[in-house]
Amino acid sequence: MAAPVGRLSLPRPFFPERFDAVRYLTHKPFTCQLIAVVVTASLAVMAQTTRPTPPIAKTEPRVFELHGDRRVDDYFWLRDDKRQNPEVIAYLEAENAYTERVLAPHKAFEDKLYQEMLARIKETDLSVPYLYRNFFYYYRTEQGKQYPIYCRKKGSLDAPEEILVDLNQLAEGKSFMALGAFAVSDDGRRLAYTTDETGYRQYKLHIKDLTTGEHLPDTAERVTSVEWAADNQTLFLIIEDPVTKRSNKLFRHTLGGKTEEIFEETDELYNLGLDRTRDRKYLTLLSISSTTSEVRYLPSDQPQGTFQVLFPRTEGIRYFAEHRNGEWFILTQDGGKNFRIVRAPVSDPSKSNWREFVPHNPKVKIESIDLFTRHAVVTTREDGLQKFTVFDLEQGKSHLIAFPEPAYAVGGATNAEFETTRFRYAYESPITPRSVYEYDLATRQQTLLKQNEVVGGYDKTQYVTKRLFATASDGVKIPLTVTYRKGLRRTGKNPTLLYGYGSYGVSIPDGFSSNRLSLLNRGMIFAVAHIRGGGEMGEEWHEQGKLMQKKNTFTDFIACAEFLIREKYTSPAHLAIQGGSAGGLLMGAVTNMRPDLFRVVISQVPFVDVMNTMLDPTLPLTTGEYIEWGNPNEKAAYDYMRSYSPYDNLQPGNYPAMLVITALNDSQVAYWEPAKYVAKLRTLKKDDRLLLLKTNMGAGHGGASGRYDALRETAFYYTFLLTQLGIGK
After folding, report:
1. Which of 66, 644, 68, 87 is nearest to 76 (CA)?
2. 293 is annotated as an active-site residue
3. 632-639: long-range contacts (C-beta < 8 A, 24 or more apart)?
4. Which of 9, 290, 581, 603 is catalytic?
5. What are phi and psi of 290, to 5 degrees?
6. pLDDT per position as a tens digit, 302-333
7. Is 209 helix (H, G, I), strand (E, B) or coil?
8. End-to-end CA distance of the chain
9. Is residue 267 pLDDT above 90, yes or no?
10. DSSP designation for 547
């Protein structure tokens, strides 16, 4: 399990991006005297009046000129790479104080929402144990504790429990704690794991001797991937660059001995990812950009050997490889953008020896392949929905695992064993809680192992989910998933929350949230716009919403909003929108384009200062994302990005009520982007609707790490959303 990389934590293969899906230090309050340095004297008035007055950031104009264009940034001073500038901290604290005062009258409602959502959660719970080399591994939660406890039992679930990692103990005295890598040696005697204590996604390696319970002195910083060799003594590590946070170097470490660098990815567009095949025979090293990849491999029983290139990289072609019985199964774009799968012998995997296994289909994207002793499970996406095809590799037969609902999310669960006929997967939908199934690949028998309990009772038949299609400005059909409580009448005045993302080829899953019941049960409609730039409809869907076609993402979202209004689901006065990271860019762009269309905007860790960020190669992730957004050092790309960058296109006028959420230690979208955006918008908006900035001073891109803290954050923005739509009970 690799540490999260980039602006979204993705299953393999991965690449950097600005998301979710996702903590540095806690600052003590600053004095009013210090705050006065940064904000106007209105703060003094604020304490004496019943109507709070927002802080106004000072202006220090800074001029940028490129390609004949002149930009003036009055709030560039808010950038502080070290997150320690007293003036900056004071301004963020002042905004937090203002937000708290504005929403203080709704505190009882916020507490009610929190308790309501908490009451649906089974606080003391157990994951589905999985078997790996004679041990059953699982994690469990305990009531009142923020974090999971990772455990195992030897040979039987009735055996004594062995606690491997208790994140609650590691988090004592800290505002943040996250687990990254978690890798057990083949002999089961040692555990390598990584932790992040700040939210900056900077992970430290720990190695625990599971026979003694002691930690070894071996450690490393900025580790993004960890895998063991078969000798149980050698660890391979990927370490990121301290400035750009690009995973660029591979190291070999011998326990108690030396650590040596054995490979560096020098192309700044690429990141490294490390894995081990399910049969444990090979280590694979992936060099990947958002358009191209290259695989290197090393027999896991030859840790002192050299990684060999499977196929040299070819610009515009991504490929990935998995091993079974002396053959590579290669998922490749050589032959079509939506991938095909070929088989090739390890002894000579050249193209002349390729055998077609699953052909390319322009209407079906192949997403992954899981290999077992006798079977393969291929995950595909067609018409926006995922499917499993099971192949019997000995008999040459195949069959499809079908799913009943019109919108759902499905994916492989933990399948650690190679020699098995049982495949585990997780299924959920907007109205079906997450469910883990075990499917016998030979007999086709399916067993439900666990469905997440919604405490207090939940009847899915009381809710409706639909897959609808809006028509974009160029005639393309855009999928929409709409969920609401049964019995709802389309009056054109239903409060509605429309969510969107639309970047990096990421498909937004139609999943379940017990928290969302607090919206649905109050008469709200929840909708997801599966817009271009995402991956729901294949690789073309992504390409039609990136680079010089990025504006399709925004116009698609607007078309979805107009569809909901036209079909009388809602109206502009009752429509709220939400997005995070690159989805926050979406929020900023569509609000600038159509401020009349929305009543409320929730923008989380938003990527809104596009020009300054993409023109600064010293920032994490910037250069690697030229392939997604364009390189603004080129005039055509600069002009196009300049035309939609939310921060650069703010204008005087009326805007929806807006809550902007950020985190001080965000490494994916720096806090100063949303802070500058709010500071500038305060001077331009002509209406009296709320504009609030909330900064988590001890978290990163994904917000609070503890489950109760995260629930508090949800209750907070639900309170803003509902009260701004006139729902306050």
Report:
1. 87
2. no
3. 632/66, 633/66, 635/67, 636/548, 637/547, 637/548, 638/66, 638/67, 638/69, 638/611, 639/67, 639/69
4. 581
5. -80, -5
6. 999 999 999 999 999 999 999 999 999 999 99
7. strand
8. 42
9. yes
10. G
| List 300, 648, 701, 705, catalytic entry | 701
Catalytic residue among 196, 275, 648, 666: 666
Question: How would residue 621 be classed by pLDDT, with cut points 50, 70 and 90?
Answer: confident
> How far apart (Å, rounded) are the C-alpha atoms in residues 582 and 503?
7
CA distances (Å), 297 to each of 184, 238, 273, 318, in order? 20, 15, 12, 16
Helix (H, G, I), strand (E, B) or coil at 543: helix
Q: Please, how many CA atoms are within 13 Å of residue 257, restricted to the half-sphere of its CB?
A: 9
Cα dihedral across residues 213, 217, 222, 225: positive or negative: negative
The rounded distance, in Å, linking the Cα atoms of 414 and 622 is 33
Nearest residue to 456 via CA among 124, 118, 47, 108: 118
pLDDT in tens, 331-360: 999 999 999 999 999 999 999 999 999 999
For 259, list phi and psi in degrees, rounded to 5: -120, 125
Of 362, 428, 440, 436, which Cα lies nearest the Cα of 401? 440
Q: Which residue has the tokens 């009451």?
A: 119
* Nearest one of 245, 236, 242, 248 to 181, comparing CA atoms: 236
Which of 449, 521, 499, 471 lies closest to 19 in space, CA to CA?
A: 499
Give me the pLDDT at residue 159, please: 98
Looking at residue 418, the DSSP 8-state letter turns out to be S
Distance CA 72, CA 680 (A): 12
To the query of whether residue 701 is one of the catalytic residues in this protein, the response is: yes
Q: Are 109 and 723 in contact (CB under 8 A)?
A: yes
Give the integer Cα–Cα distance in Å for 319 and 343.
Answer: 13
Secondary structure (DSSP) of 343-394:
EEETT--SGGG-EEEE--BTTEEEEEEEE-SSEEEEEEEETTEEEEEEEETT
The alpha carbons of the chain give a radius of gyration, in whole angstroms, of: 26
Residue with tokens 């994302």: 625
Q: Is the pLDDT of residue 458 over 60?
A: yes
Q: How far is CA 130 from CA 43, 414, 417, in A?
A: 56, 7, 9
**What span, in angstroms and rounded, lies between the C-alpha atoms of 463 and 488?**
10
Catalytic, 503? Answer no
Which residue, 584, 590, 576, is CA-closest to 644?
590
For 451, the token pair is 């469905």
* Dihedral (Cα; 352, 353, 355, 360), 10-degree rounding: -40
- Backbone torsion region of residue 581, taken as left when φ is above 0, otherwise alpha when ψ lies between -120 and 50, otherwise beta: left
- Residue 530 backbone dihedrals phi, psi, to 5 degrees: -90, 75
The pair of structure tokens assigned to 475 is 């005639």
Say if residues 408 and 431 touch (Cβ distance below 8 Å): no
Q: Provide CB contacts within 8 A for 387, sequence distance 6+.
A: 379, 380, 381, 400, 401, 402, 403
Other C-beta atoms lying within 10 Å of the C-beta of residue 572: 15
d(CA 556, CA 168): 43
Separation between Cα atoms, residue 223 and residue 125, nearest integer Å: 30
Q: Are 717 and 602 in contact (CB under 8 A)?
A: yes
Q: How far apart are CA 627 and CA 269, in angstroms?
A: 8
